[in-house]
## 1
Amino acid sequence: MTRPAADDVRFRVLQELSADPNISQRELSDRLGVSLGRMNYCLRALIEKGLLKTESFRASDNKLRYAYLLTPRGLSERSRLAHGFLMRKMAEYEALKAEIATLQRDFPPPEPGAAPREEGPGNRRESDE
């Protein structure tokens, strides 16, 4: 079983490549906030697993570049990873909603026109001590 963080990176890579197969490794690593070395490792692993294939082409500056194309297995894996990604994000969302509700209950906003709350002994600032 893979780690959720690794699944998230793989999903995001497959998602970006399905939208823009001609993207460079450097631009992809910048978009996803991972190192170029990690991106290279991830792309090689996806190619070895048969989820991606590469096609070379000439860029406008006459340099050889690669297009990363999702294979049928890659499309299937992207769908599987999307489901897990969505479930994790929904769980994070529910946890955040619960935390916000607790904070709103514990620290209600002041009523309009009310004087600021006085600081009690447990609410002193470090500079006051």
## 2
Amino acid sequence: MERIYKPLSEKTREEVKEILESNDMDALITLPLSLGEYEPDWKFAQDTCMKLAQHEDERVRANAALGLAYVARTKGKLEKNLVKPVLLQLLNNCEEYQWRVIDAINDINLYMNWRIGKKAIKRIEK
């Protein structure tokens, strides 16, 4: 599969709603990244990424973790009590893209000054 770089586009709330209701896998895969980068309401971005973290497709779930990392980087806000269990769950249910979840957790720890998932990641990397 050839990788093609496309810059992320800003999404309106209506576009977000349409993507969430669609089965457009390309749009669902990039949605959490776009929200993390551009959505001014950190809570909306976080909650949408949390919803996408439960998606059946592993690529969407892994990018939901990365979207949360983007929210941490661009907004400096996340609700640890909600985000932590989801990220730890993603460590266990993303096999092919587990590396992306680990990168996202490490980024979130850096930007939020948290220490989540350290033991779980050490077990995985052994």
## 3
Amino acid sequence: MPVAIIDGCTVREFVEDTDAFEKAMKQRFNNLDSDRDGTLSRSDVRAAFECVRFLGCALDMLDPNTPDQIDQLHDRVFCKFDTDHNGVVDIMEFQAQMRDILLAMADGLGAAPLQVVIDAGGLLEDALKHGEGRHVTFAAQAP
């Protein structure tokens, strides 16, 4: 995995560049939309969440033996995205939640540059690509 120097300003600038942000989120949305109906179902969101859960289990961050708690967490995440409570997540709902998530990440990163490991295909990778050539530095691969 690549290592990069990033700060919250890089992430915030990406989110505030409406064209770049919406293009990246539309691509992510389309990748999650398994039946190509223009909405994300519970199973689409769950599949995306399972990737994060798998990573968390692999890093010993989550207990894989708590299926009821995992199901409840999936439901809470889906409800957070499905703001109009119609049972599906549309592109506008998806972009709004992803914007909030990325802005929270920007706040967490703060203004001081940090060296972080970047997950290939992850959210921060979009912000880094947007910031390339300005104040983002990719370092060597992490072991």
